[in-house]
Automatic annotation (TrEMBL):
<protein>
    <submittedName>
        <fullName>Acyltransferase</fullName>
        <ecNumber>2.3.-.-</ecNumber>
    </submittedName>
</protein>
<keyword id="KW-0812">Transmembrane</keyword>
<feature type="transmembrane region" description="Helical">
    <location>
        <begin position="177"/>
        <end position="194"/>
    </location>
</feature>
<feature type="transmembrane region" description="Helical">
    <location>
        <begin position="80"/>
        <end position="98"/>
    </location>
</feature>
<dbReference type="Pfam" id="PF01757">
    <property type="entry name" value="Acyl_transf_3"/>
</dbReference>
<feature type="transmembrane region" description="Helical">
    <location>
        <begin position="7"/>
        <end position="26"/>
    </location>
</feature>
<keyword id="KW-1133">Transmembrane helix</keyword>
<dbReference type="InterPro" id="IPR050879">
    <property type="entry name" value="Acyltransferase_3"/>
</dbReference>
<keyword id="KW-0012">Acyltransferase</keyword>
<feature type="transmembrane region" description="Helical">
    <location>
        <begin position="131"/>
        <end position="147"/>
    </location>
</feature>
<dbReference type="InterPro" id="IPR002656">
    <property type="entry name" value="Acyl_transf_3_dom"/>
</dbReference>
<dbReference type="GO" id="GO:0016020">
    <property type="term" value="C:membrane"/>
</dbReference>
<feature type="transmembrane region" description="Helical">
    <location>
        <begin position="154"/>
        <end position="171"/>
    </location>
</feature>
<feature type="transmembrane region" description="Helical">
    <location>
        <begin position="238"/>
        <end position="259"/>
    </location>
</feature>
<dbReference type="GO" id="GO:0000271">
    <property type="term" value="P:polysaccharide biosynthetic process"/>
</dbReference>
<feature type="domain" description="Acyltransferase 3">
    <location>
        <begin position="8"/>
        <end position="320"/>
    </location>
</feature>
<feature type="transmembrane region" description="Helical">
    <location>
        <begin position="280"/>
        <end position="297"/>
    </location>
</feature>
Length: 374
């Protein structure tokens, strides 16, 4: 499979995860009946696992030379920075100048932390582990390359040893640190690497049956046919079984079968997936504003529907007006800073004996040839 091939179901998975988060936040405000299944946390787990999956799928087989790593860094930063920094700065202004009760309480004291992608206000807590994983993946990438090209296991053992140590002590680590969530990213990486080895010749009927089995299992849990005790939210995040299930789910639905296209490749899921990051960032402020507009009106499902529609519309608008242009601008800037070609100086014999070589620099636009003696 070509790495550039678009997999619609993965975009749909992002949309599903974002909608689960929105549903959970509405349930917290009593628009829906709350559930012990923690749909919001499930959505975040899928986001983490999908990040690991995509990094391994897109980059795992490539050579991590300087241009590749630079493009990777540019791509990752330009993907999250426009929407995230916009929300951080807007929240800072709203909280300090308009509404001191604003749900994203970004003040003078914690602004710098959030600008450095290390804040933990409300839903923004999940951004630091994501960014930290982007850094850790570079080490995984180099370890994969060393093992693949030279059968050198030293770096692989060091990287895996570090990750396994973090997993072993995950319960003692803060939630905004990658170590407390590394098992989700690792599950994604493992299944992403497996996905790169699975070609288009795989039996789609078998995959559709497996997908149907997973859906049936999820429905059985939701309907209470299968009783599952997930414990507290923190206990759920620490569980290795949920990380494994998330990895299997993302792997199976990375294949565009007829079933996955109907469930995850439809227009709603695709649209939600495209603007999923903006939806994740905006849904809590929108719910906060909706509650203020409602006044004393009791929350109920009928009122949740327009809030969901407004959230999707606002997220799509932000995606089109901020994420996409910002992504393009930052990619161009990053490419200019890190990947622009550098013209090598040309050494020309000196015309005067004993004068030494003369360096002729490549001319700039509108300039003549510059000559200088070393």
């Amino acid at each position: 499979m070509q790495q550039e091939q678009r997999i619609d179901s993965l975009t749909g998975i992002r949309g599903l995860a974002a909608l689960l988060v929105v549903y959970a936040h509405l349930a917290e405000e009593r628009f829906f009946t709350d559930t012990h299944l923690f749909p919001g946390e499930m959505g975040v787990m899928v986001f983490f696992t999908l990040s690991g999956f995509l990094m391994a799928f897109l980059y795992g087989e490539r050579d991590p030379n300087y241009p590749s790593v630079a493009r990777y860094a540019i791509s990752r930063f330009s993907r999250i920075a426009p929407a995230y920094l916009t929300v951080v700065l807007a929240s800072y202004l709203i909280y300090n100048l308009v509404d001191p009760q604003f749900v994203y309480a970004i003040s003078h004291d914690n602004l710098l932390r959030h600008l450095l992608f290390s804040g933990n206000v409300s839903a923004l807590w999940s951004i630091p582990p994501e960014v930290q994983f982007y850094v850790i993946f570079v080490g995984i990438w180099f370890a994969l390359r060393a093992f693949r090209t030279n059968s050198n296991v030293t770096l692989m053992v060091a990287v895996l040893g570090t990750i396994l140590m973090l997993i072993a002590y995950r319960a003692q680590l803060p939630g905004t640190f990658i170590g407390s969530k590394i098992h989700y990213f690792l599950a994604g990486v493992v299944f992403g690497l497996v996905r790169t080895r699975v070609g288009a010749s795989v039996n789609m009927t078998t995959l559709a049956v497996l997908q149907a089995g997973v859906i049936g299992l999820v429905l059985a849990v939701i309907l209470g046919i299968i009783d599952v005790d997930l414990g507290s939210k923190r206990e759920l995040y620490l569980t290795l079984e949920t990380a494994g299930f998330a990895g299997i789910f993302v792997f199976l639905f990375s294949f565009d079968t007829g079933l996955s296209k109907r469930l995850l490749g439809n227009r709603l899921m695709m649209l939600s997936g495209e603007c999923s990051f903006s939806m994740y960032l905006l849904n809590i402020p929108i719910i906060y504003a909706a509650l203020a507009v409602m006044g004393g009106l009791p929350p109920r499902p009928a009122l949740a529907l327009p809030i969901i529609a407004i959230t999707i519309a606002a997220a799509w608008t932000m995606y089109r007006l901020i994420e996409m242009p910002g992504n393009t601008l930052l990619r161009q800037l990053g490419t200019w800073l890190l990947l622009r070609p550098r013209s090598a100086p040309v050494v020309v014999p000196a015309a005067v004996e004993g004068a030494g070589p003369v360096l002729i620099q490549a001319p700039q636009v509108g300039q003549g040839v510059q000559v200088e003696r070393p």
